Amino acid sequence: MQLYVLGCSGGIGGAARTTSLLLGERILIDAGTGAGELSLDALCKIDHVFLTHSHFDHIACLPMLLDTVIGARSRPVTVHALPETIAALQAHVFNWQIWPDFSVIPENGNGVLRWAPLAVGESRDLDGLRITALPAQHTVPAVGYLFESPTGALAFSGDSADCPAFWETVAGVDRLRGLIVETAFSEREAGLARVSKHYSPSTLLAALQRFDATIDVWLTHLKPLDAARIVAETSNGIHRISALVGGQTLQF
C-alpha cells in the first residue's frame, strides 16, 4: 500500500497545502487544501474520507469535493469521523447557509454524502487495508489513525498534544514502518502550542523517549514561517526525524 501526501502544512502560501493524505486511489485522510491537488478524475474516484477532527484546515476541501463529483457518482462518498466531528460539520458547514446539506441532495435518501460515525479504537477494512482510529488530545474531539496493510503499518497522530494512550497503542503495533506526527510550533511559540494542544519540538522529543528509535518519524503540520526552525529543533541525533513534504509517497 502507498500513502501519497497531498498536503501536510500547518498553513497556506506558495506551495503549502493543509492536511490531506491519499491512500491508494479511493481513500482520503482529511480533506484540507491539499485535496485540491487531485485531478478531476482522481476526485471522482474518492469513495471514503476519514477525518481526524472538525477544524477548517482539515475539512476545507470536503464541501467542494462533494460539489465537484455529485454528477459523476452513483453511490455516496462515505465520511468516517467521530460523532462529535460529524455533529460539528452538520451544524456549522452542511447547514444550507455555509454549504448545502449534501447528505440529502441530489435527493433525500440518495445524497452524495454518507456519514459513518467512528469511535476511538474502531477499525474499518477497505481495499485490503485496515484503518483504526487512535486516541488524540486536541481542543476539539479528535483522533489519529493507524493504517495497516498485509506488509506493514503507518501511524498518524492527527492534530494532538502529547497523548500517552496514542503512544501506548502504536508501541504494540507489529511491523510498524513509520510515524507521522504533527509538530505545529517551534519552541519560541511553545506556550501557544500548549494552549492550542499541539506538539512543539520539546514535547515531541519527550514523547519519543518512549518510542523505538529505529522507526522513521515524519513531521507534519509545521507552521510555514517556522518550518525550518522546527526541523532544526527536533533533530536529536537519536531518532530518524524528517519533515513530510507535499508530493511524497510512503510505502508500507
TrEMBL record:
Q: Name one Pfam family in it.
A: Lactamase_B_2
Name the chain's protein.
cAMP phosphodiesterase class-II:metallo-beta-lactamase superfamily protein
Which Gene3D superfamilies does UniProt cross-reference here? Ribonuclease Z/Hydroxyacylglutathione hydrolase-like (3.60.15.10)
Question: Any idea where the Metallo-beta-lactamase domain is?
Answer: 17-221
Q: Which organism is it from?
A: Jeongeupia chitinilytica
What SMART domains does this protein's entry cite? Answer: Lactamase_B
